[in-house]
Structures are given as C-alpha cells and as structure tokens.
C-alpha cells in the first residue's frame, strides 16, 4: 500500500507578520497561486461573509489590491498570486511597482485588502508578502495569517485552488499621484526654506517614490527641495549595498555624500521604503527615537490646533528612548508604552485612537495614514521641521536626544533563561526596578545606591539608567538595549550586563 505524502507545511515561510523565504527553493509561483486563493478566501470573502457557507465566493465586486517591489522574482509571483485570487472570484487591482506604504495608501484609499510583494531589506534571493485588510488594517498569525497559511497548504495538497464558475477580473491602476497628494496634504513643505537633501534609496523603491512625492515625477508642483539622488536605479540585486539602513555600514555612502555636498540633511530608505533613517548636516545619524520625539510633538501640535481640548495619545515601544514619553507628557499628551513589533503598535493605535506611534527601528505610524507606517511621511516631517528653523538639523534634534544609548547589542548564549536569571538576581540585590512587558526591563534604583555612585538625580525616566534584555524569537540570542544619563553611565551598565549575559560563553 502506497503511503500518502505528508500534508504541506508552509510554516517555514509564513512568519508572525508576513510571508518570507528564498525563491524558488522555499516558495515559487505555484505556492504564490495557492496563497492568492487563500488570501481571497480569508481576507476578502470571509471578511464579507463571516459565517462562511457555500455562497461566499458568489458576490462580485470584491477587490484585492496587489503591489510589488523591484525584486527580479516579484512580477512572476504577483502574476500567479493574482491568478489564484481570480480563481476564487475576487477582482484584482494591480498597482504595480510601489513602496509598502504606497500599498497601504491604496488599501486605505480603495478600502480593499492588500498584498505587497517584498522582502524588505533581505538579500535578492528572498521575496515575501505583506498583507493587510481593507483600510490598511494589519494581519498577523493571530488575525488571519494562520488561516491563510492553512488554506494555501490545503490548496497545494488538492493540486491547486478550486476555481469558481465566474473568475474575478484583473485591472491595473496607478496610485502614485494619489499617494503623493495624500502625503503632501498632511505635511506642507511648500513654504519651507530651500533645503538640499541627499537621499540614498539603496536601489529600492524610494528610487520611485521620492521623485514622485518630493519631486515632480507624478505631476505634482515643485517643492523648495534640491534632492541629490544616491542609488535611485531600481535593482533588486542591490549592487551598491544592502537596503537596510539599520546597519551602520549601509549609511556610510550617504554620510559621506551629505558632508561632501554640503547638504542640509540626508535620508536613507530600506528596500520597500517603509522605513526612513536620517543623517544630519555633519553626517551623523539621527536616532530614530529623536525622530519619534520630533514627529510626535508636531503631530500633537497639529491635533491641538484642530481641537485644543482633544485628548492626544502617542504610542512608543519600550526600547524607544525615555525622552519620547517625557516630551510627550510635557506637551500635555499621553504616552502609551508597548511591546516591540508593528502588530502591537497598530493594535494600540486602533485601541487608543493615537495620533502617532514610533519605534526604535525607524517605523513610524500615523492615524492620518490609516494607522499604518510610512517612512516617507516621517521624512517629510523632518524636512518641514528643518525648513521652518534656521538652525542646522544637528542643533534642532539636540533637544530630542539628551541621553546616551547603546543601540542593540546581541549575544549568542547557550542557555537564555539562565543568562536572564543571572542578570535579574544581580540587579534585584541592588533594589533595581523590573517589568516584564517584553523581555526584562530593569531600571536604576532610586535613592542611596545611585547617589553613592554620584549619578545625577535626573535621567531617562527620572532614573540614571535603564536597560532591556529580550530573547530572539528565532535564534539563541539575547538582545540588550541600554540608556543612561551620560555615555559613561551607559557604558558601565552595558559592560556589566554583557559580562553577566556572556558568563557561560
């Protein structure tokens, strides 16, 4: 008797928040077609008919918006994915080459679920899909992605999607001008002083979106910006450097160009252009926490102008500098602290009606952008702030970066729980504060302990230091972030914690 093959398992490519893997080794166009049918079933048809039933594929006019980045594998995967959605009777609107936040715009403006084909900053052999419900609402394993995974696996085991009698249509729509107009309606740069800005697109999608939004490529009026392009050629093989500005090595070219060209600032985008990093006129990287604080205060002011009595909320994750909640509170708004991860930020944005949210990883979320993240809108806020102030950017952001931060320091450890417990015991003996919202956050003790060390009374969150120790979800790693009232305090805490973490190495 022949043993049937094991059922298809897509858990190796369907992650917590998206689909991602090597093409074609881990997934291919056949998988993409099954995923398209599954997304049509789960995010389009079941959303319209929660009770299910045999007639759920019957309604016409149900749309799914699909965009893609510049990776060589994207067009073929998109074609197969769209065919799978059409198989289930769903109409597909192809918006073509776009950034991830451009896809979110299309999902919001058209009020339709969306699929963005991208692997963000991953190497060229990777590709993936970021999904959202209508209105750019997020999708994670807990809110639909697991169902998409299981539907797609069942489809593959059955030899392909079941095709309804009347397949869906496929149309194309250019949303670039609308995307640019919407962003410009939220931040007016027309009256700013002239600025010279170097932009490193990393051969990613910012090479398309920056000329459209900050320039005249989409037919919008000229802005007082002299944009100097670096690596604007769309090339998913990333011939110049990885499109991941979080790594300092990938900022070197931008930093050099800003100084050499005497620019006012520099901007660097990742591959799908949903994250933006900022470099000041001296070539120094501006902390994403400082950008979060700057944008938060501008969004609070905009909200107060519209409604002076409004209760304004700003979201920040727990690794963001403590200057963010301090400045938000000083401005009369309410800071809300969350776990790390865009799904948590977006959930809190929706729950609290927050006007803005920021992460240490340079993801920035806006209520005026359907609660989704957009690096371009954050960049426009920075440009506007710089254009409204005669001071250089370095002076402008100094107030938003009063503390010293370590950045994320990773340690490979054999026994993660044992390493965390060593740290916990060492600092508990000193009366430090603890919370376990996401990993372990430890804050300096208040009172004689710090005073004996000569630490200032005022520091991040009113303490001389704090640190967070988080375990990786996928590797035997501990991630450490430390912030101190000054560089010496931060370094001392960082080195002591690392010694405890790595004691069994």
UniProtKB/TrEMBL annotation:
Keyword Magnesium applies: yes
GO biological process: carbohydrate metabolic process
Residue intervals of the Alpha-D-phosphohexomutase C-terminal domain: 408-499
Span of domain Alpha-D-phosphohexomutase alpha/beta/alpha: 13-143, 179-283, 294-402
Essential cofactor(s): Mg(2+)
CDD domains the record matches: PMM_PGM
InterPro entries tied to this protein: A-D-PHexomutase_a/b/a-I, A-D-PHexomutase_a/b/a-I/II/III, A-D-PHexomutase_a/b/a-II, A-D-PHexomutase_a/b/a-III, A-D-PHexomutase_C, A-D-PHexomutase_C_sf, Alpha-D-phosphohexomutase_SF
Gene Ontology molecular function, alphabetical: intramolecular phosphotransferase activity; metal ion binding
Keyword entries, A-Z: Isomerase, Magnesium, Metal-binding, Phosphoprotein
Gene3D superfamilies reported for this sequence: Alpha-D-Glucose-1,6-Bisphosphate, subunit A, domain 3, Alpha-D-phosphohexomutase, C-terminal domain
Listed SUPFAM superfamilies: Phosphoglucomutase, C-terminal domain, Phosphoglucomutase, first 3 domains
Record-stated family: Belongs to the phosphohexose mutase family.
NCBIfam families: PRK09542.1
Protein name per UniProt: Phosphomannomutase/phosphoglucomutase
Organism this protein belongs to: Pseudokineococcus marinus
